[in-house]
Write a structure and sequence with these properties.
With 275 residues, the chain is α/β, with parallel strands linked by helices. It is built from 10 helices and 7 strands.
């Protein structure tokens, strides 16, 4: 990735973080922590690596991004709006009655959303199915699945891993938003997963570890994953829940909490936005 491209993506990430805080403050609901941690992952995919546009949305040859950790929908919607799938102005309707922008992604209602996700574990087997269907039909496309820490507590995730390995799903690229925190506490407090990298290796995955807040590192990891044939790849992206807002960073209490006036002022000051 060129330094110019990295600056462009970093600027987009800052813009998305500011917009997220603005919107969640205005509507007094939503999930800030996981949305902030997945920002660089989604931005690198939508604006650098993945072949997805409003123009090719109906073509099977497009890449597919499935946000399995559906509670991070606010950041997904910001990415889609920036790509032109719907007007950015529509973000003001997030989580409101009759809005297309529900609290968790809905593929039936929202342009650009590939899968309806929310119940943790439900999106990953679907992502594998999409990838295998494309492989079977010799469609030149990748499916990107984004998992969260709480999600890998689910047994269906590991069943999916077994199948991905068996069927050599090298067109499935999984990215774990690896921030070490879930809804009720840290992963160590709630459900210790041990050596996550070794677990995925044991299930037959090619594993890549990178800084999940470095767009250049993410881009390089994705390119490496694409070069590996005959097995699925997972990128273990080390992130910080609530990244960019000091009082949210690493705190499970900001998994889903309203952004009050005092929170808004502090967050926007740190992000360099309007106050």
């Amino acid at each position: 990735m060129t330094s110019e491209k990295k600056k462009e993506l970093d600027a987009l990430c800052l813009k998305f973080r500011r917009s997220l805080i603005e919107i969640l403050h205005d509507i007094q609901t939503g999930h800030p922590g996981g949305s902030l941690s997945v920002c660089e992952i989604l931005t690198t995919l939508y604006f650098d690596e993945a072949n997805i546009t409003p123009e090719n949305a109906g073509e099977r040859s497009r890449d597919k991004i499935i946000l399995c950790k559906g509670h991070a929908a606010p950041m997904l919607y910001l990415e889609l709006a920036e790509k032109g799938f719907f007007p950015m102005e529509e973000m003001k309707t997030l989580r409101q009655i009759d809005s297309r922008l529900q609290g968790h992604p809905c593929s039936k209602e929202t342009p650009g959303v590939e899968a309806s996700t929310g119940p943790l574990g439900a999106g990953y087997p679907l992502a594998l199915g999409v990838a295998l269907a494309d492989m079977h039909d010799k469609i030149d496309a990748y499916t990107y699945a984004i998992l969260g820490d709480g999600e890998i507590n689910e047994g269906v995730v590991w069943e999916t891993c077994m199948n991905a390995s068996k069927f050599q799903a090298d067109r499935l690229i999984t990215i774990l938003d690896w921030n070490g925190v879930q809804l009720d506490g840290t992963t160590e407090e709630i459900m210790p997963m041990g050596d996550v990298e070794l677990k995925f290796k044991a299930f037959g995955y090619n594993t890549i570890v990178c800084d999940g807040h470095d767009c250049a590192a993410l881009s390089a990891a994705i390119k490496t994953a694409k070069s590996v044939k005959g097995m699925p790849s997972i990128i273990l992206a080390r992130t910080v829940k609530g990244k960019g807002v000091s009082f949210m960073e690493g705190k499970n209490t900001w998994h889903g909490a309203p952004v009050q006036d005092e929170h808004y002022e502090t967050a926007m000051k740190e992000l360099g936005g309007a106050q």
